[in-house]
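seq:
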Amino acid sequence: MDKITEVKQLINEINCLHSKFSNDYFETGKIEKINLSKTITHVPIENIYKYRLTLHESINDYLMIANIDIRYFYRVKTRESIDDKIKRFSSRDEQYPVNNWLNDIFGVRIILTAPEIKIVMDLLDDWQNEFNLKNWYLQDKDCYRGLGLHIYFKNKNNFYFPWELQIWDALDINTNIQNHEKFKRNFV
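struct:
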């Protein structure tokens, strides 16, 4: 199987896992559903913590049954990282919906070459509806370079926290790790 087909398969599986987990979590009637298109003043922080903890405790059960052939890495955002993000975004003058910035409680990373990333970017418009992609962008800021392509899943539902897929350029791995330590772990 070629890399692009593997990436497409991974995107499909992340979307299916996101849908299944979100349905199992939010559609049971045990959890209060909150519209995440509201600002943080309307989204109880305890709901975010419960979601994160449940995801952390159960994501391996979902990943074990996934049909993923490509090498990937995943993480569930720590509570400290969530607190840091809430602090930064709630202190801004202009407030944004929670699902626009707390869109990476669960994240997957894969490594591709620059030409492979370009091919994936060219295909994302075609894959958007097929895989219920929320949005995507290429991260490349002067002070925070190299975190690659970010793709978000939300299954067209404002009650489900989005998940993230990051596609890193193989040549940027060390820079990405250094930047992540410098800019994303300042709560330590």
